[in-house]
Write a structure and sequence with these properties.
With 363 residues, this protein is an alpha+beta fold. It contains 9 helices and 22 strands.
Length: 363
């Protein structure tokens, strides 16, 4: 299967979208970022629905090239596009939605069976659940036997109850399609679950493109770290003779890190590296946060507990055993080796705390 290669520039209202990206056959790449970053415009430019000012789009054959004056219309680009709202024809049945793009009834029937929606063949889109509509949209996108698959926020129309199951189904489909696939989403968890590589797009520029686990382990800056779910505590770092770095936090208190850096920083600690207890534990951890629980969100067997600007992730059983509830005072603990020191977050992108300030005490 041919790779998708896109290298173009497209002026938008507030900035210029400039992207250089290769997606191999059988590979899925996700673009994540805030609303208005240009993610959906990337898909539209590849599909021929938006025209870059300059650049190239190639997948086996050249679809767009300003130097060669090539600009194939959408119908001449071998693209399967799943729109955010799925864009199914409401007056057509499932079968006719899929067959609309299929070269033959045999192909259409095969896709209905592949997506396990043959029993819905005569139903209309408004009679379907969110997960069923997604399957129909995917079947229709693949019906034309495209060279590349484009997915615009494929999980956003799903309710939380069906999201995990549909995400697993979509992951299986993408792995077996053999197509270069580019999807956009604002949800890093969806991107990490579905994609081989994840690119962080901010104001039309790729901040970082890497495997999901590498984005978490080695984020290039504070924005990428926050997008991957990390806690960020701004402050000023000063190396100590002991080899540790002391950070005087903007919110008050001190924090210690095994990273070495000096000057304005953002202290990164991930929720799963934060432990909670009713009293300060007697352990080797140097960083202890005393504060009031602002929120507790339990999904499945995990609970996310917000303590001031910090979020901790613990098992639901631990949350119940510790009696974690809004208003309770707890101590959140994390080790110096569990932190990363990153360049200070840009003011306009700095993550916002949701529960006021807490002080880190090191007794």
């Amino acid at each position: 299967m041919d790779a998708l290669r896109a290298d173009f520039e497209l002026p938008l209202r507030d900035f210029e979208l400039a992207l250089e990206l290769d997606v191999a056959g059988g590979e899925t790449v996700a673009l994540v970022g805030p609303s208005g970053a240009g993610k959906s415009t990337v898909l539209r430019a590849i599909a021929g629905l938006a025209r870059p000012a300059r650049g190239r789009v190639v997948c086996g054959e050249t679809w767009f090239d300003t130097k060669q004056r090539i600009d194939r219309p959408p119908e001449q680009r071998s693209v399967g596009f799943v729109f955010q709202d799925y864009a199914l024809f409401p007056h057509l049945s499932v079968e006719r939605n899929v067959s609309f793009a299929a070269p033959s009834d045999k192909v259409s029937l095969g896709l209905l069976e592949r997506f396990r929606i043959e029993h819905l063949a005569h139903a209309k889109p408004l009679q379907l659940s969110g997960g069923e509509r997604q399957r129909v949209a995917l079947a229709r996108a693949l019906a034309r036997r495209p060279q590349v698959l484009l997915l615009d926020e494929p999980m956003s129309a799903l309710d939380p109850h069906t999201r995990a199951a549909v995400r697993a189904e979509l992951h299986e489909l993408l792995r077996g399609s053999g197509l270069p696939t580019l999807l956009v989403t604002h949800d890093f968890e969806d991107a990490a679950a579905l994609a081989d590589r994840v690119g962080v797009l901010v104001e039309g520029k790729l901040r970082q493109l890497a495997r999901p686990e590498d984005l978490v382990a080695e984020p290039v800056d504070a924005f990428v770290a926050a997008l991957a779910g990390g806690n960020l505590l701004p402050g000023v770092a000063r190396p100590l003779p002991t080899g540790l770095t002391q950070v005087e936090l903007d919110g008050g208190g001190l924090c210690y890190s095994a990273d070495v850096r000096e000057g304005p920083v953002s202290v990164l600690v991930y929720p799963w590296d934060v432990a909670l207890s009713a009293e300060q534990p007697e352990d080797s951890a140097l960083n202890h946060v005393r504060g009031e629980i602002v929120s507790v969100v339990t999904i499945g067997n995990r609970s996310r507990v917000r303590v001031g600007p910090l979020t901790a992730e613990v098992t639901a059983a631990s949350a119940e055993r510790l009696g974690l509830a809004v208003g309770a005072r707890v101590v959140a603990t994390f080790k110096a080796t569990g932190t990363r020191l990153l360049p200070a977050a840009e003011p306009r992108h700095a993550p916002q705390g949701s529960g006021g300030l807490v002080r880190i005490v090191n007794e």
